[in-house]
Amino acid sequence: MKLSRVLMLAGGLLGMAPAVSFAETTPAVRNIVLVHGAFADATSWDKVAQILRKKGYNVSEVANPLTSLADDVAATEAVIAKQTGPVVLVGHSWGGVVIGEAGADPKVSSLVYVAAFAPEKGETLQALSAGGPPTPGIQAVHPDDKGFLSVDAAAFPTVFAGDLPAAEAKAALAHQVPINSVSFGTPAVKAAWHDKPSYYAVSAQDQMIPPQAEQFFAQRMQAKKTITLQASHVSLLSHPDEVAALIVEAAQKK
User: How far apart are CA 31 and CA 58, in angstroms?
Assistant: First the structure.
């Protein structure tokens, strides 16, 4: 589905009522698994993880290899398998594609998307992005000679982490991990948001994923709750308290 179609569909979905209601009586979940996105590593979740651990949650941060969708899903499933009891699965950016697959695990009780892609079965990120003009962030993404993609170092502080202090943006750049370009052309096999209560944090100042596309994903999945943060793509670093609060809400099934 092209991005232009995505944006048109987004308007039509505004008036849709949720087709599924989820029980409110499920006990609070104590296990939270955090999945990072492209051009980042697990440290991108450190602020949120620290907040959640202080609240008594068991938090695990997946180290995605970013070599393929299958590899990232396998890494996430391995972490889920180690949990005792139900899990809230959280994905940022590319991590949204990963949790859409790994979230089908019976242990996963709910999903939280943070400025994240949420493709339907059969959709690829390449196709989703093809219909509209590239964002400033996408324009700054370039391949190396092995086909791995990175955000240009000079542009990274602005397009990826525009609302972070300069020192924090520089630190985030130091943790950039390239992603295999084949990942963006790999179709989604599952879309766990059809079957699991889902929550979404939109980044209104995102220069990587269009905010309108994020709103569309939230509306299409009929998110149980959507929040909009005046944040860059890395709201998990610039607004960790708000992101952590949404995760807690998912864990408590409010």
Answer: 5
State yes or no: pLDDT of 28 exceeds 90. no
Cβ pair 105, 196 in contact under 8 A = no
**Could you tell me what percent of the chain has a pLDDT over 90?**
85
Alpha-carbon distance 196 to 191, whole Å? 10
**Residues near 247 by Cβ (< 8 Å), separated by ≥ 6?**
32, 48, 52, 88, 90, 112, 199
Whether residue 137 contacts residue 151, with contact meaning beta carbons closer than 8 Å, is answered with yes
Please answer whether residues 218 and 228 qualify as being in contact, where contact means their C-beta atoms are separated by less than 8 angstroms.
no
Q: Name the residue type at position 151.
A: V
Least confident of 5-9, 25-29, 108-112: 5-9
Domains of the chain by start residue, with CATH: 30-252 (3.40.50.1820)
pLDDT at 139 over 60: yes
**What pTM value is reported for the model?**
0.90
**What are the pLDDT digits (tens) for 36-57?**
999 999 999 999 999 999 999 9
